[in-house]
Amino acid sequence: MSRLFLALLFLFLPITSFSQETMKIDSIEQPLYRPLIERYIMDEIKSLREENQSLRAQVTKQIAEAKLESSDRAINYTTSTVNNIFYIITAAASLLVLLGWRSLNDIKNSLKIDTAKKIQTLTSDYENRLQQIEVKMTERSKVIIETQKNITDTNSIHSLWMRAGLEKGDEDKISVYDEILSIKPDDIEAMTYKADALLEIGEVRWALDLTNHAIELDNEYALAYWQRACSYSKMDKQTEALNDIKKAIELSDTLEDELLNEKHFENLHDNKAFKSLISES
């Protein structure tokens, strides 16, 4: 009997423990993934910074090694050429002396002049080649640095967009959008989303200026017209708002489904033209 009782006890003990763990998990109300996302973003930014520093060091080292190698090669080639010239001149001078074509002084002077001209020509040629190599290396370095900067800016902007998605307050979102615009001033998407956040806090005139600037940069961006229509609607400029709504739908027909869901269009619900747009959609 005691053995049977112990067996039943061990059988029901995991079930009771599992029930208690389930009750603990169900009692959790706050999301646990937010700190993990923030930690992931910080680790990614740190990793990118370390990779950028390593890349910069490698590029600098490669440029220095390339310049040193080119200089050594040019000097060795010049030295070999000059030595060969002297060997040829010595052999020719010996032959001329033996044959008696010229006197020793004439040969000496002629050799000096010819050697100086040849050395000057070779030196000028290799100086030009070295300058061309330096120019090419400088241009490639600029391209690499510019590409590295673009990669860094892209990664930073991506991280800021992820951060903006996590922010709950409109003021905090506006601050993140300002950081994006400080990196990329012509980011029309950041301007448009910032305008939407400004409408939420009542800054209608500021939002209108932003959407106007975004449309100046890209007059084919549908969301910019949509946000400007929201600003016009808040200012009770129904004609301008309806014109921008039509333009936004013309550029992106998926916005038709959002006509009734957009709370900033409440002033237009009694407008006949707005009702006709809804009926057409």
TrEMBL record:
Species of provenance: Arenibacter certesii
The keyword DNA-binding is assigned to this record: no
Gene3D superfamilies to which the protein is assigned, alphabetical: Tetratricopeptide repeat domain (1.25.40.10)
Domain of life: Bacteria
SUPFAM superfamilies with a match to the protein in the record: TPR-like
Coiled-coil stretches: none
Keyword vocabulary terms for this entry: Repeat, Signal, TPR repeat
InterPro entries: TPR-like_helical_dom_sf, TPR_rpt, Ycf3
Signal peptide span: 1-19
Listed name of the protein: Tetratricopeptide repeat protein
Keyword Repeat: yes
